[in-house]
Structure formats: C-alpha cells, structure tokens
Design brief:
The complex is a heterodimer of chains A (about 300) and B (about 450). With about 300 residues, chain A is an alpha+beta fold. Chain A is about 30% helix and about 20% strand. Chain A has a 4-stranded antiparallel sheet. Chain A has a 4-stranded antiparallel sheet with strand order 4-3-7-14, with no helix packed on it. In chain A, strand 11 (about 245) and strand 12 (about 250-255) form a beta hairpin. Chain A is elongated. Chain B is about 20% helix and about 30% strand. Chain B is built from 6 helices and 23 strands. Chain B has helices at about 190-200, 290-295, 315-325, 380-395, 395-425, 440-460, and strands spanning about 10, 15-20, 30-40, 50-60, 75-80, 85, 90, 95, 125-135, 145, 160, 170-175, 180, 185-190, 210-215, 230-235, 245-255, 270-285, 325-330, 340-345, 345-350, 370, 375. In chain B, strand 3 (about 30-40) and strand 4 form a beta hairpin. Chain B is flat, with a radius of gyration of 41 Å. Residues about 1-15 and about 225-230 of chain B have low confidence and may be disordered. Classes of the chains: A alpha+beta (about 300), B alpha+beta (about 450). Chains A and B meet through helix 1, helix 2, strand 1, helix 4 and helix 5 of A and strand 1, strand 2, strand 5, strand 7 and strand 15 of B.
Chain lengths: ~300, ~450
Amino acid sequence: MKRTSRNSEMAARLREALRAPATLDVEDPTVREIVDWLGRLMCLEGVPFGYLVPDPQMLPDESIRFFSVDDNWITSLVDGAFSIGRSTTGTQGNDKEAKLHRDARAAAGAKLHHRRRRKLGLAPAVVPSRYEGVLSGFVLRTAALEVWPGMETRGYLDEAMQQPATLLRFDLLAPTLAIGLFVGTVQNITFAEPSETLHFGIDLPNSPHDAPTKGLRYADSLEGKPAGDTLFDKDRNPVTAPVPMRDAARGVVDIAGLATSVQKTLLDNGGMSAQTNYTNAQFALELVEGVQQVLFRIDLAESKEKAR
Amino acid sequence: MPHTTTDPIPDLDGKLRFGQFYAPPWESGDYSFNATQSVSHAGEPGVAPFSDSFGSSLTFEVTGPRFSIPPSYFHVQYPPSGGNGEYSNVLPHVVLTVKTLPWQRNAMPPNPDPEAVVATETDYPWLAILVFDSNDPAVPQPVDGDVSQLLPANLPANTVSYSCLQLETGETWQDSTGAVHYAPCTYIDVPGDLFTAIAPGYDELRWLSHAREYSSDGDSGKAIRALPPAAELSVVVANRLPAQGSKTTCFLVSVESMGAYLPPARLAPGASVRLAVLSNWSFGVLPDRSTFKDYFDQLHISLPTLQVPSAPGIGAAAADALKRGYTAFAHQTRQGAQTVSWYRGPLLPYLNAATFSPSFGSADDLLRYNPQTGMFDATYAAAWQLGQLLALNDKSFATALYNWKLGQTREAANALEREALEQQLSLPPGTLLRGDTPMHVQLMQAAIKPALARALANQDKP
C-alpha cells in the first residue's frame, strides 16, 4: 500500500516537473541557432509567396500595396514550427510551450533591428525604438525594379519624416517583385533612384532655338540657406546660367565658358561669396542633377477584428 | 609635389562632398634619388686640406595605370552601359574608386627645358571622355593591340600620339630569347577634325574632373547591396551631350602629355590622333522613355491594400470579407468533403491586435468555423501547418529544437531525481549538485561515507 502511494506520488511529482516551464538560456549555441531561425521566420523569410499574396489579382502588374503584418498569423506560424519535439498532445504541456514561445519571440525580437545590418556586414546601429511586435511594409510589382535594381527605400514612423523606421527587409523576390518590411507602423515611405546615379547635366530648352541653361544652387551657406539649396532671385524665380556651346550642332559644351558663366551668375545673384575660391569643386556642385525620389503617405486605420 | 587644399569644400547635406582634387603623394613615373655628401676641410698645420664628395643614387618607379585600368577601379559609368533612356541632357561621366587616379599623371606636354619649373600649381588631369554618336562621320572602332603601336616609330603616316612617349617599367620587357614584348592596350584612331571639334580643351580638363566624398550611415536602403560606408571617389565628366535618337559610344582615353594637340590647337589637315582607350561603353538615347518618377506615377494605387477587387453583384458579407483581405479557396477536408473556405495571408490592410496565446496542439485547433455562413476560416491553421513544414524542412533547426527540448526534459527529470534522493537521505537540499563528478561519487561523499562513519562510530561504542 505504501509503495503504491509512494509510486503514484512520485509519478505525480514527475509529471509536474516535466510540465514546469524551462528558461531559455540565450548564451547556449543551440538556443542561439533556434532564435536566429525564428528571427528569419518572423520576417516572413522562407514563406512561399502564395501564402503571402494568395490571389494574383491582389497584386497586378505595376502596382504597390501596403500592409501591416498580422501578429496572430506569425504566432500560428511560430507555434507550428515549435511543435517539433512536443511530447505532449492537447493542452497538457501548454505552460511550458507557451513560455518557450514567448521567450523565444522576445529574444528574436530584440535582435530584429540588427538582422539586416548583420546580413549586409555592417556594424549594429543605434536602435531607435523597441520592437513592439508591429511590422508594416509594402509589396511592389513594377518594371522599374528591373531598370533600377539598386533602388533605395526609406520609411518614417511619423508624418513629419523625422523618425526613421528600421528597414527589416527589402528583397527582390522576382526581377519585378519586391517586398519591404519596416519595424513599426510606417506613415511615409520613399523610393529613390540609386544614389550612384547622381549625374551631371544641363537643362535643355523646350524649343531648339533657345539656348540651354542650368539651374543653380547655393555654393556657400549664405542668407541662412545651406549650400546645395536651389538659388532663387528677388522675384522668386530659380536662377539659371546660360550654357555656351562650342558646337551646338554636335552638342559640344564650352566647358571653360560654362564655368565662367556659372561663376558670374552665382556672384551676381548672391549664391557665392566673393571670397570663395571658385574651383572645379564648386563647378561640380552646380552641375549635379539630383536623383528622383517618390514619397508615399500611408494612413493605416486601426480596427478591431470582429469575432466570427 | 603634394598639394594641400585650403579651399572650403562645399557640403551637400553632409552626405556628399565635392573636392577639387585628391593629390597623389607621388605622380606615376620613374624617379631617381641622388644623395651626395661633401666633406671638406680647409687645412690645418699637420692636416692636409681635402675635399671629397660621396654619392649614392637609387632609382625607383611609381607605377600607376597608364594604358589600361583594371575593371575594379570603375565604380559607376553613367549613363549605364547598354541602357536606354532620356539622356539627351546628361553629360556622361565615370566614377572611379581610386581617388587620385585622374591626377596621377598630367596632360602637360613634356618640357624640353630641364630647368623649367612646373608653371601652375594645378596638375591638369590626364583622363578625358570622348563621346561619339552614330551621326558622326566616322565613329572610331577600338583596336586591341599593344603598347608598341603607340610608339612614334610604329605610327602610321600623319598620325599623332603621345609626344615623347617613354615606356615605363612593366610596359615592355625582354624574355629569355631576347625578344621584346609589350604590354597590351586598346587604342582608337580619331580623325583630326572630329577630334578638334569634340575633345575637351587643354584648359577645360581641370573643370571636368573632381573629387567626391560620399558617406552614409551604412544602410542606404538598397535591395541588393549597399555602398561601402564612406567612399572617396574621383569623377571624370564628358563635355558633350548625347544626341537624341542615336546610339552613343563613350571612350575614356588617356591624354597624358597630349596638351599640344588638344583644342584649340589645330592639327594638320588629314591627320588623325591615336589614343589609348581605358574603357568604353555605349548606350541608346531615346526620347519619351519613362523616368523613375514616371514609373511610380503609373502605379495602380486605387486599392492601396492587398485585396481582391470585388466584382459588382456579390453580397455585402462577401464584399466585406474581400475588403479585409480574405480570398476563398476550394477546400478538400480530410473526410473527403469538398467545401470552400476563407484564407488570408499575414499582410493585412489594417492593424490587428495580437490576441492569440500559444500553444496549440495541432493545425485543427486553429481552424475556425462560422456556423452562420457554414464556411471555415483556414488562415491560421494553414499558417500553423506551414510553420511545422518549414521547420521540418530545415534539418539543422529541427534537430536543434528537438535536442534542446529533450535536454530540458532530461534536466527536469534529473533534477527531480536529485531532489527525491536528497529528501530520502535527509540531506540538506542542494548537496547533490549537478557538476562534473558523477552522481554516485557525489552520493558516496555526501551520504554513504558519513553514514558509514556514523555506523562504525556506533559500533565502537560499547
């Protein structure tokens, strides 16, 4: 009698011990591997595209769609991944598995900001905000991705574009299909041409009889304007310098003449101070044509999903 | 020779900075270094006067690209090679990763007067870009040859090339049989009048090259690769605009010591100029090609979020479901029944509160059923199943997770066993620690030995 009750008591204690939640030791290399893999999954890497966009009508050619990531979907996904090695069925091992899930996701979330920088081989940046569990982003299908594969994107968490959002993922899933993920709810997303396509050029006139011109910028920080801002004259028109051509038919620009013309126009309109030594550096600054940038403003509405 | 710039360098948002030049510490070429020491003594009673000088000389070469440039030196060629676009207002340019390259040699004609001092402090760069389009009478074709064809002895009649060309180390060598070899190079022959019309002038060269410093915080938001964090680059710009509707070819040529032939100097009629080509690329200039902004202006944005456009005539409930991002799929249940169920991906058109608490036993736990419509919502069940499949697919992750869980279970069981033993043997808790010594050794030391000692002590007592 005594033995049986002792046995059953032992069995009960053993069951309890096995069910007790375990702590996750993030220094353990096995745990680190698990957390890294989990970080990948939380960024939706490895998820087939058909699960993300089930119907091709949702993302036709030449379109962009914005979204926020469903945290419940990620929870289900991660739970499915953690079901390996689950020795109990039903709800018996619930506390233990739940704690593992929460700890692992918290550990992966803490490293989420640095994922992309680690992939790019850069040093970890100062993290602007904690990971609150919200990810948002865009899916883009356009031929522009093929023409400018070095396209750059930036996200901002606020309307005034003061708080940059950490870019979690910007991958080309196909030559014309890209997905971008930011940490937090982005309100502004910009796309820009690759910055190395910064180029030099002049403004061609609308009619071939007029001479080409070049819009000028401030060469020094003057009148409260930083160097690089567009130069305006007293009537708020952009200041332009005439471009002399050595051979207009062949399109050969008279570079020395252009340099002089730019210098004179800058001095006349207060774009450069008279003490500045005018060199090819200032000339290059004036000749640069910027890259184009497109801005999207997003307003993600908050709503509660009704229980079905 | 080293120049320092004290000119203020214009800033542009702190991210892009233009400079006049990056001066190389040494210009490329052959140098000889002579050191002489004279020792003399006027003479003293008892010491004969003497005057001696001792010298030593050393020659060394500073090599730099001269007739060819490795492809890794090029960062960007704009307009891009093989591209088509609205480039009719663009001056083609080349960005080089070696920041001192355009100023390693100069375009000044060599001065026969050895005493002459370099007249100006600005070294004119030796790189220029020649732009030809298909409307030109004779677009030169690059010829692959070697450096010997640039020597004055091997030039065809009425052709000018680099004046007083002196080959440096590495450009010519003799092999074991005594035959002379020359380094390979590519060159073009440009008709004289075309050259005078389109080449940059001698005093224009310095405006066409500049230094650029680019810095960013590292992640520039690119899809493929990011630029290196800070780059000091040099840029060479052309002086001719591409003509619209034609195929334009650009050549980056060396104009070292060609100063006498550059415009506005006129060449003899019928002469042609032979120049070494360091790089060439071509692109098409077409009107009405979309710019970056045009592509984005054309994007469909009427439905800004991921949803299937709802056809007119469907019910309100279905339209509402579609607006939330659901799609309907044919569903074959495990029992064999055919039904239609809802599915939605993780990319929602609105913010969703995180309400789920793990864990779930199986995918079926997450299958939701709406008795009013009689349809399942397979969203989360599909996600769970996908997670399990992805984990199983990745062997290393699956084994790591399994081993970790197994290890945890074993740990718990061992801890319980230790606790039970301690209780039974009335040991203070924590004696049987998990350590390097095996359990039975610890037991011996902690329990058996003292018990034995006590027993023996009791036995000794009468």
